[in-house]
Amino acid sequence: MSSLFRKPWFPVTFGGMCFVAVGVIVEVLLRLGILNRYILPFPSEVLAAMVRVIEEEDILGRMAVSGMEMVVSGFAVVLVGVPLGTLLYRVRVLRLAVEDWIAALAAAPIVLAFPLFLVIFGRGMGTVIALAFCFGLAPVVLKTTEGLVGTRQVLINVGKSLNMTSPQMFWEILFPSALPSIFTGIRLSWTFCLIAVIGVEFLVNIGGLGQLINDLAERYDMPATYAAITFVILVSVLFFILLERLEKWLQPAR
Amino acid sequence: MSGEKQAALVVENVSKRFGDAEESVLACDRVSFEVKPGEFVAVIGPSGCGKSTLFNIIGGLLGDYEGAVRVGDVRIDGPHPSIGMVFQEESTFPWRNVIDNVAFPLELRGVDKLQREEKARHFIDLVGLDGFEKRYPSQLSGGMKQRVSIARTLISQPEILLMDEPFASLDEQTRLLLGDKITQIQQQLKQTTLLITHNLTEAVQLADRIVVMTYRPGCIKRIVNIDLPRPRTSDVVGSDAFGHYVAEIWNDLREEASRGMQDSEAIARADRRRV
Questions:
Q1: Is residue B122 situated within a structural domain?
Q2: Per-residue pLDDT tens digits for A132-186
Q3: Any chain A CB within 8 A of the CB of B95?
Q4: Residue B4 falls within a domain, yes or no?
Q5: What range defines the domain where residue B34 resides?
Q6: Is B60 an interface residue toward A (CB < 8 Å)?
Q7: Disulfide check for A216: which of A18, A44, A188, A224 has CB 3.0–4.6 Å away?
């Protein structure tokens, strides 16, 4: 049995089986009347609605729109957040001055500021991307700084003893040492970005999957609404697989 | 004297004070000794005697000291290419495998991959880690990681190998075996070595001379010549002469270690009173 647990395909299969098991349990509870079928649709109906959503609602096009917004905001967060985190590490006074504010930014419900963003960026992709960027920026900044500050002194001393230049010290020691923490930040940031993308699309009724969920909910098509939510989860899974691959490539020692 | 070799490393009246005008601690006080080419010298002293301060000064990590540390005619004011450092804490790069860790100093110098890997393999072999080239530090034991650090330092072929309690975090058996390895490498490469340690048996097992330091402010109490035969292995720990040297140096150290302990207790009591 324990050898079965060690098979590489086991965790994925087990995860899938758990997902199916939850579906079956919910289905049974709904059919027995323990759960309210007007709030929660039958999982079998959600499954059937997925085909309908693919055929009638241009789901691939919508996934592409939301995915595109997610990619742009997600990579912008990394491109801006990592250098900003590095700057906070380098300039201690700046770090002490703004670190708490950035942490507060992470906790703020920036999505609710969508009217302001609509005024600035118009009713389109720009607003979604800008809001997702602002919402997702803080974790990657904070985690980059944390990772760099947490570099073990002995590794820095090794670098000094080898007469390394400042750029060498950064790229060969500080940055690789901070990478695990930076990736934790990216994972959090991307989660925030996805929430913002879907949330703003839902609220403003523009773009991809968020708008679709809004449309379907307003039509009170519950199975299709849940099917669309499942596609959001799918987009999320795809992004985290991408991140995992990237992390494995950059950190083979993991 | 004309017949004597010129010292590879000269430590001359080195003093270091920490703190400011109001409150300061004298860590080292006029410490002087020399290390000749190919010689293995150990500096031993109780905790708080300024051993690590001395290590950092000689390694060029700590500036602004009085006196002089010289390699040839050059006064040490920063890291010097002739000095290779091995640190007390585990210092391998966890994101690099063994061969990349060892080859790192050559990579910095721009040596091409094939050449640096060939050289790295030689030093990996020297520290007895052949077969582990592609492993990452997380897959190695504490002793193996420390051997990777030693190989990484040796690959630069430093004139002087400077080690700060490299076996401090290892168990006694691993420590003895690694001591063997170090002795073997030192004899093979005729490597000038300065070992900073608080471990008596380790110092006697490895060194040709032992510099015994006093408790704070750390100054030299005595320099003991260790006249044990070379080539030396850990078998030497069972000999009468080894026991004699350990006892002799412990006699010197006991008083200093007691002072250190009393000092620590007094500080702890004062802290408790403050709380």
A1: yes
A2: 999 999 999 999 999 999 999 999 999 999 999 999 999 999 999 999 999 999 9
A3: yes
A4: no
A5: 9-82+162-274
A6: yes
A7: A224
Residue B179 within any structural domain of the chain = yes
A50-58 — which CB contacts under 8 Å span 24+ positions?
A: A50/A227, A50/A230, A50/A231, A52/A224, A52/A227, A53/A212, A53/A216, A53/A224, A53/A227, A53/A228, A53/A231, A57/A212, A57/A216, A57/A224, A57/A228
B241 pLDDT exceeds 60?
yes
> What is the value of pTM for the model shown?
0.83
Structure tokens at B246: 């350990």
Model ipTM value: 0.87
CB spacing of A158 vs B61 below 8 angstroms: no
- Tally the domains of chain B: 2
User: What is the pLDDT at residue B121?
Assistant: 96
Q: Are B94 and B75 in the same domain?
A: no
Helices (H) then strands (E): counts for chain B: 7, 10
For residue B108, report the phi and psi dihedrals to the nearest 5 degrees: -65, -30
d(Cα A173, Cα B230) in Å, to the nearest integer? 39
Q: 């002089």: which residue's tokens? A: B68
Kindly state the average pLDDT of the residues A105-116: 86
Tell me the residues of chain B between 203 and 242 that have a Cβ less than 8 Å away from chain A: none
Angle at A112 between CA A106 and CA A113, to 5 degrees: 90
Torsion angle defined by CA atoms of residues B151, B157, B162 and B167, in that order, rounded to the nearest 10 degrees: 10
Q: Which residue among B124, B157, B190 closes a domain?
A: B157
Look at A160 and B96 and tell me if their CB atoms are within 8 Å.
no
Q: Which residue of A has its CA nearest to B158?
A: A162
The domain boundary residue, chosen from B101, B126, B157: B157
Under 8 Å between Cβ of A222 and A44: no
DSSP state of B165: S
Closest chain B CA to residue A167: B108
Interface contact A152-B89, CB threshold 8 A = yes
Residues B74 and B95 in one domain: no
In a domain, B1, yes or no: no
Residues on chain A touching B83 (C-beta within 8 angstroms): 161
In contact, A185 and A143? CB cutoff 8 Å: yes
The answer to whether residues B24 and B50 belong to one domain is yes
Q: Identify whether residues B143 and B208 lie together within a single domain.
A: no
Contact B22, B36 (CB under 8 A): no
